[in-house]
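Before a computer can learn anything about folding, someone has to put a protein's shape into writing. The outcome of that step, for a single protein, is printed below:
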Amino acid sequence: MPVSRDLRNRKTTKATPAKSSPPVQTQASSPDEFFPFARYISATGVHACLLAFTALVLPRTSPSFVAHFAPSWHQNAEPADFSLQGTLSLLTRSPVRTVLWTCVGAAVLQAWWASCLQEWLLESRMQKRGVTDAAEKPKQKLDKRASGRRQLETLKNASLTTLVAHPVQTYSLALLLALLTAWTPAYVYGPPSLGTSTEALVIRLTWIRLFAELRPRGAIERAIVYPAIGSLFGCWSGAIPIALDWDRPWQAWPLTPAYGAISGYILGSLVAVSVSGITHLALADLLSAQTPAKKESKSRQR
């Protein structure tokens, strides 16, 4: 009968259980997952030590260094004094010379540091996109190097104009701050512009997000933003001792803001390493916790 056939069909449909879909496993992803953290720690330590060397030792060696190239000055060159009093005397004798020598060392170090960050950024982007073409990476490096040369020419022309229009003391401090804060992001991402192209818009929004909104993403951006903030805050804090009525040689402008900027930069670099290290370890712990759960779900499905 047709009624009995319908009842049988209903019973069979109720008896067959529906196949349950396997649970979706979410895997944590973060910019730090592709970051060479070991190289970052070692490079940050070397960078911080060389910055301290540039600020404390390089200005002290300037008289003997010049004496080698000018033998007539060798008689006027004073013997090196490595005591604390001699070090302070040599650093405070000519504040402009001290800060300019610091700028020379900082320019070399920041160029090396920016190239390291740019290389890590390119590696991270290539690994995320799954790029296998080996010719694309050298092409990107050549484009960035050409951009860096254009930035250097622009900086040189602007520096000559500023040197003529403003006092040397203020210019030397401004140059040091520009090297510590603006040179690295300009080399890595490109200088911001008011252009209407897509690339100019992306670069401008990146600068706004990093330095206006203070929202860095990943270890590379933290390595750029945190030292820049520390350098500006250290320079501002270094101007406070100048107003004190102590009449000390080290209170001369712009020694304390310059050394405050370098100290703040080093402190910001260490904070960036600490935050990136904690994030990296937390991500590794999360991924290791997800691996056994994923294996267990696969064994249950089998």
About this structure: The radius of gyration is 29 Å. Residues 83 and 89 are 10 Å apart (CA to CA). Residues 13-32, 72-77, 131-139, 157-166 have pLDDT under 50 and may be disordered.
